[in-house]
Amino acid sequence: MDGAHGPGMLPLNIAQIDPAYYTGNYHKWLCTPKGAAILYVRRDLQPSIRPLAISHGANSERTDGLSVHT
User: Does the residue 41 lie in any domain?
Assistant: First the structure.
């Protein structure tokens, strides 16, 4: 689902939509810098996603039951 201009413009209930993936830009209606966005990944698909840029703790043991890809 592509919600590029939705955040801040329309009510959003991701649980009701239940998409596999949802992405939206924040710069249009929320007045953030370009590049600020949201990426929602349904829990069953999260193990297949590895961000291009990661923060500290990316290789730490997870406590939520999901695996960590190294």
Answer: yes
- By the 8 A CB rule, do 8 and 26 touch? yes
- As given in the structure block, the two tokens for residue 34 are 């370009």
Task: Write out pLDDT tens, residues 2-47.
Answer: 556 677 777 888 889 889 998 888 877 778 888 888 888 999 998 8
CB 1 within 8 A of CB 22: yes
* CB of 14 closer than 8 Å to CB of 22: yes
Residue 31 lies in a domain: yes
Is 65 domain-assigned? no
Q: Please state whether the predicted TM-score (pTM) of the whole model is above 0.90.
A: no
Instruction: Please name the residue ranges forming H helices in 1-70.
Output: 14-17
**Residue range of the domain that includes 31:** 14-48
Paired tokens of 25? 């830009």
